[in-house]
Design brief:
Length: 192
């Protein structure tokens, strides 16, 4: 990255194809069941994680929680894993950890070298947090479903054909956008 001596930062130039992984996530998120836990189940889950319901923290780093994260990812290598949105597969998380973790297995990620992961941020009670999450995994086994077997090949294949078609449209749109950008940039004023 270039040095930034005077406090200037150009807004990030997003690309159309740069949206591919969030599109894939949406094609999985749109089909998975969501099972809402009862109040008592949430209290039990928090107790297993060593938290009170009036002071919920990120399970990974201890910061204030902002969301519940899928402990096991819903998508790996652009395919659904079979895990769903249900309490045994959800833990309170901060946005920093959720974004840093992505599709990685949680234990390796926590101890690993990913930007902004708990290991890199020097979280002091890292091993204690890992032990809590291991207890959470023992508490309730999350479901891992074979979606395709449940709905049949025809509907399943139709869904993923839509996904491929949409990705193809993104690529075509990106190619067109690059030509536009080059044409527009050649006319933009460059004062120095
Ligand atoms: Zn966190």
């Amino acid at each position: 990255l270039p040095k930034n001596p005077i406090g200037f930062r150009m807004p990030t130039a997003v690309t159309i194809t740069g949206r591919s992984s969030s599109l894939t996530a949406a094609f999985v998120s749109a089909i998975i069941p969501t099972i809402y836990p009862s109040h008592d189940e949430v209290l039990e889950a928090l107790a297993v994680l060593g938290m009170a319901n009036d002071d919920v923290r990120c399970s990974y780093c201890g910061d204030a929680y902002t969301e519940w994260d899928h402990l096991r990812p819903l998508v790996v290598d652009q395919k659904p894993t079979g895990y769903i949105s249900e309490l045994p597969n959800l833990v309170p998380s901060c946005g920093k950890c959720n974004q840093s973790k992505g599709k990685n297995p949680w234990r390796e990620w926590m101890r690993g070298k990913a930007p902004r992961c708990p290991g890199v941020r020097g979280i002091s009670d890292l091993e204690e947090r890992i032990a809590r999450l291991e207890a959470y995994e023992r508490w309730r086994q999350p479901q891992r479903l074979d979606f395709q077997a449940m709905v049949g090949d025809e509907l399943w294949n139709e869904h993923w054909q839509h996904w491929r078609d949409t990705l193809d449209q993104l690529r075509k749109s990106q190619t067109c956008a690059e030509r536009l950008k080059a044409g527009i940039a050649s006319h933009a004023l460059q004062k120095s």
